[in-house]
Specification:
7-stranded mixed sheet, High-affinity nitrate transporter, signal, Transptr_NO3_Nar2, alpha+beta, cell membrane, membrane, Immunoglobulin-like
Length: about 210
């Protein structure tokens, strides 16, 4: 009898988890209110490739005058997203209409409670940001942490107001400097060693 109760409880939990996942999977990007947030992204340097870990992007967002779901907004999450040119032949960056599958905006910039007043943040590009071309998108979430609306710093085709980032290489400038200093020290040490040996040899010969 006890085993039957355990099995029934396990089945019930599985069904609840499945139904919960199913609700999440049903959420589609195409169902979100488009342009509900006005988003801008201004880079610290213009018309150049930005350096991860160094350069900054100032992001601002505010409610659009055309938004119809503002009453549902509880949280705003601002994300760094790949532009189409940086998604080619990269399935791990692919855009999906089903939000739980979407991989185009993996880099969270900031999450804040919704405020009807204009908000902004000066974001330093993370050191682990991959090389690529990007834009910024802000999602509005409801009380159930579900996306209900969005706005982005580019157009619908994601071709305007983009910026490029160069990832940090495997070597760091400080390491390069230390390497050079060590090499110079090694060479000098070797020279001093040979001079001393040659001097010792002359002393021995003079004896």
């Amino acid at each position: 009898m006890a085993i039957h109760k355990i099995l029934f409880a396990s089945l019930l939990v599985c069904l609840l988890i499945q139904s919960s996942h199913g609700a999440t999977k049903e959420r589609l990007f195409s169902d979100l209110e488009k342009g509900a947030l006005v988003v801008t992204a201004k880079t610290s340097r213009e018309n150049v490739v930005l350096d991860a870990g160094i350069d900054k992007v100032t992001v601002t967002w505010k409610i659009s005058s055309t938004a119809t779901k503002e009453a549902e907004f509880k949280t705003i999450k601002v994300k760094l997203c790949y532009a189409p040119v940086s998604q080619v032949d990269r399935p791990w960056r692919k855009t999906h209409n089903e939000l739980f599958k979407d991989k185009s905006c993996p880099h969270l910039i900031v999450a804040r409670p919704y405020d009807k007043n204009e908000q902004s943040i000066e974001y330093t590009l993370e050191r682990d940001i991959p090389t690529g071309t990007y834009f910024v998108r802000a999602y509005a979430f409801d009380a159930n942490n579900h996306e209900v609306a969005f706005g982005q710093s580019t157009d619908a085709d994601k071709k305007t107001n983009l910026f490029s980032v160069q990832a940090i290489s495997g070597r760091h400038k400080s390491l390069d400097i230390a390497s050079v200093c060590f090499s110079v020290f090694s060479v000098l040490s070797l020279v001093v060693f040979f001079i001393n040996e040659k001097r010792k040899a002359k002393i021995e010969q003079s004896k």
